Each structure stands twice: as structure tokens, then as C-alpha cells.
Amino acid sequence: MDISTYKRVLLKISGESLMGSRAFGIDVDIVSSISNQVKSIRDRDVEVAIVVGGGNMWRGATAEEAGMDRATADYAGMLATVINGLALQDGLEQAGVTTRIQTAITIQAVAEPYIRRRAIRHMEKGRVVIFVAGTGNPYVTTDTAAALRSIEVGADILLMAKNQVDGVYDADPNAVKEAKKYEKLTYMEALNQRLGIMDSTALSLCMENDLPIIVFDLFAIGSLNNILDGSSEGTYIG
């Protein structure tokens, strides 16, 4: 499929992306910037879903290392994604984008339960759907949740947004000046080289269901629109 024909996309945003220059928490200006980018592609009648992480608030793996039960730590991380989802909803609606939050764990006061057919219907009506609480299961990352939700709602592509990194490299480009950027990768190349794009479960799920991925810098000006226009933004995996 030509990239310019993508009509339904799922955007994965890490919790860390919402911090900006802060050490933790949410930078309102960053949320506004992301919201305006999403609005720009909604204005092109592209259907949008978002999966957001919670690493700016809580990291289950770190809590486990400190002695906390892993499942409990992961459930706390799911709640962190709900906070981020609410912040994104507010930013999007201030930008004029109608939004719904669907959660994999029951929090009826602030979000709908995740129902696949309802999520698809929201997108068909032009609403942006924010999926929070991962898959609702401990030991599962929000990367895997992004891959799973993409497949469930029939997204044409999974857009993995990175912070200040414009694609996949063979080394950390912020630390290694000679790091080489990949324009395209196959799923197996990404898996075998362990390039840290996403966890292997998520990548395998994309491979098994022929879901293409683009890894790109969310904060590069116009990056989402460039992807829809078919320019070689970021790294394509498929």
C-alpha cells in the first residue's frame, strides 16, 4: 500500500515524550504541540487512534527492581497512562478535536471501557480515540498494546513516535556521531539486530499480521503530515 493512501492510523506516544524538559510529569506546551499535530491530520479526514505510555509518571520495571511485586507495579503503571490520556484528551479538545478515552481497566468516571466495535465507530465518526491502561494485563508493555489495538481496529499503519530521534539507528545517535540511520527494515532485521524499536512481542505481532510501522520524531515540524504525504520520514519497517 502506498503510504499516501493510509486512512486510519494508530499513533503510539511514550509517556516520556510528554515530559518535555521536565524531570517527570507533563509539560502542557508539549501536550499542545502534539494535539496540534494530531488535529492537522484529522483535518485531512484521517482516522486516528492513540496509545499512550506512562513512563513519565511510573515505571513498573524500576519499581520491581526496588522490591515491589511486578504485577502490582504494572497496574500502577496502567493508572499512569490514564492520567496521560486525560491530559491528551484535554489538549486535543482545546485544539477542537472531539476525543474519547477507552480504558482496558474499569474506570467508568473518566473513561469508557475498551470495546473494539465502539472504538471503530468513534473513529468513523471523526473522533480521536485514546487507548489507555495498556492491554489491562501486567507483564505486557504499551508497545504491545499499540500493536494489538492497531490490528484490532484495522489501522493501516502503526506510527511509533520518538522524542528527538528521527528514526532507527544502528547506535544511539545522541551518543555516537557516526550512527547510521536505517531508511527501511524488514521485521526480521529489526528483531535479529535488537535495535530497541519496541519489545519483541510487539514487533512479532506486527510481523504476523503484516502491520507496517514507521518510527519517527514526533517533534520534527510537520512530521505526521509528511508521513501522510509519502515523504521518507523516519524509518519504515515492514
The poorly predicted ranges are none
- The CATH architecture designation is 3-Layer(aba) Sandwich
Structural class comes to: alpha/beta
Tell me the radius of gyration.
17 Å
Name the helicity range: 25-40%
| CATH class term | Alpha Beta
Ends apart, CA distance between termini: 11 Å
CATH homolog superfamily? Acetylglutamate kinase-like
Largest β sheet strand count, sense and barrel closure: 9 strands, mixed
Tally of distinct domains: 1
What overall geometry do the principal axes of the alpha carbons give? Answer: globular
Write down how many β-strands occur, each being a DSSP E stretch of 2 or more residues: 11
In CATH, the topology is named Carbamate kinase
Task: Outline the structure in words.
- The chain has 238 residues and is of the alpha/beta class.
- It has one domain (3-237): Carbamate kinase (3-Layer(aba) Sandwich).
- 37% of the residues lie in helices and 18% in strands.
- β1, α1 and β2 (47-52) form a beta-alpha-beta unit.
- The radius of gyration is 17 Å and the shape is globular.
What's the helix and strand layout?
Elements: E1 8-13, H1 28-42, E2 47-52, H2 60-65, H3 70-94, E3 99-103, E4 112-113, H4 116-124, E5 128-132, H5 142-153, E6 157-162, E7 168-169, E8 181-182, E9 184-185, H6 187-192, H7 200-208, E10 213-217, H8 223-228, E11 235-237
Parallel strand pairs: 1-2, 1-6, 2-5, 3-4, 3-5, 6-10, 9-11
Antiparallel strand pairs: 7-8, 10-11
Helix pairs in contact: 1-3, 5-7
